[in-house]
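Next up, a chain.

===
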Amino acid sequence: MARFVRVFGLHQPDRTPCGTPVPTSEAHALGELAHEGELRQVELVQRLRLEKSTTSRIVTQLVRRGWAERSAAPDDGRGVLVRLTPQGHQAAQNLAAARRARFGAALERIPAGERDAVLRALALLTEAVDEP
């Protein structure tokens, strides 16, 4: 596992495994926001499985980059909604394209007859790690 983490670049928090110079945590936040359109910041905390303060710093950085904007939740004076700007949507699309290219290239290097088994093993590993 440690070798996989290193080879895949998961130990480099300042760039995604596909080589994009964006912190992995920001890339995950962009992906969640691109998928949902907008989220309450507390929902983003849950989806990213990070602390509130860490998620707040990530959102602040996305806002600084011009990729996201915050607004007050209409039904909760303390709630914060986060949504992507047009530049944020473009950044999310660029990251998704780089991710597809990297994962696609990796899968192409696996013999065709073994790809399903590898994908199933990854799903099983994810489920096992996700258990409380």
